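Researcher: Next entry in the queue.
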Amino acid sequence: MLPSFFIIGPPRTGTTWLHEILRHRAILPKGTKETRFFDIHFQRGLRWYQAHYPSPNGSQVVGEVAPTYFASRQACHRIQEVVPTAKIVCIFRNPVDRIVSLYRVKRAYGFIPWNFEEALRRDPELIESGRYATHLRAWQRALGSDQILTTFYDDLRSDPQGYVNVLTEFIGIPRFTLPENALKAIYTSESMTHPRSYYRTHRATVLADWLKARRLGHLVGLINSSPVRKLFLGGGARFAQPTQELSKSVYELFDSEIEELETLVNRDLSGWKPSSMEQVHSSKS
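Model: Structure for this entry, 285 residues:
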């Protein structure tokens, strides 16, 4: 039993929300959202990967929500080899907003110890996962454009039901109506804070990854849903908003990628560009 679809993100584009929406309507890995099989655990073999999936339930399709696959050339090539007919869903978000959100999550969970500016220099994933056009082209070459659905986070936020309708038709799930409470549950990083103790949080995250690699993700889930979670997450200072100058410098890292993406998907992305950001900062000041 192998997936017929992958929602590959990149990270911080609504994939956790989509996982919650789809987990009762498709067969997804049990005990964890992301197996990381095709990018870091491939050597464990297909039997290890397939053991993440529950027994088939009627005609439900099999899939995985795996945002780290988007910027992984290894994941792209391995999926091409193992499941060449799989459908791929990409979600694109304003690259400045997405990087800020990804930084906050990585800092809050103790993945990195640096401030935002230093993380941009020292954490390759922040930049690499924002090279939208480059990686989209790689997936299109590997699997064919017909098997790739390009979507946008703005559409997910503004019209969740319309977004889900397009998604379900593409991956082969019967259309359904979103429950009213789901429309307000799109996850953001706004409420996250720096960890109270970076080293304690970092050790807890390393342990969580160790458990997941041994298919014990359900234990991680139990801890995350218990009061114990507060010992490792949160409690520190709130994250500062990036300045207009810093936002512009981040945009400049991706200006050519945005221009190319506009051409690839035939969509106006002027809202991601500095002129629009200046208007947003002016309206907040």
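Model: Strands lie at 5-9, 63-65, 87-92, 148-152, 193-195, 235-238.
Researcher: Noted, moving on.
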